[in-house]
Amino acid sequence: MEPILLYGFPSGSSMGLVAAFEHVGQPYRLCRVDMLTEMKNDTYARLNGRQETPVLITDEGRVLTETMAIAAWLEARDTTRRISFDRRSPEADRMHQLMAFVNTGFTAAFTPLWAAFEMETAKPETLAVLRDFGRASVALRHAQLEALIGDTPFLVGDRLTLADTTLIGVARWAEFHEAVDGNAYPRLAALRRRIEAESVVQYALAIEDGEKPAGSGACLGQVPLTDVIKRFAA
Ligand SMILES: N[C@@H](CCC(=O)N[C@@H](CS)C(=O)NCC(=O)O)C(=O)O
Fold this sequence. Notes:
Strand content: 5-15%
Order of helices and strands: EHEHEEHHHHHHHHEH
Bound molecules: glutathione
Number of domains: 2
């Protein structure tokens, strides 16, 4: 069977993995998950106990969660190195370093802002503390990422890699939460523009918007979440 990537909308970090699968170009399927209505229930928890996206159903029908694990699964199959590097190369080391930073410190910095956004009842002073702390955390991680960006067009070298696709789904949360002034981080701003201009990222954004972009043909279609749960949930 083809692997099935469960991606979340709206504004899911998994948008980057959709672009990555499309770029690798091997047959895959997608499964669309409405994070606001379809994830926080016991049925979905049988796929991912943390009730999060992304989730990968591998070509052997195993359930694999966590962005880094899914990216590593894809990297191991990217034998023509369309989106990765030889695993013993310095480029691979740098790619893994940047992916780890983005998936931990950079992504986690947004947690207080998401918490404030999702709180239905909270005192204004509680929200203010969360927002202030969140904005300060996001600003710090932006400054650190700005310092990590080199002189190459993409995070590692002159082509799109898993480091860029890990970043692009998360980086846009800065605008969503009006957390920082993007112009204060010119290298990151230029990098994001280059990543977003890539056709596979445009494809992933269109998928996220519920459109049916043509793509490369590698995506063999979307599988309803109910079918995925029926076939693969524990
Ligand atoms: N550690 C997980 C985090 C995944 C994650 O935070 N997913 C978000 C969407 S981008 C989610 O499902 N959030 C829903 C929630 O926790 O309410 C990973 O890297 O895959």
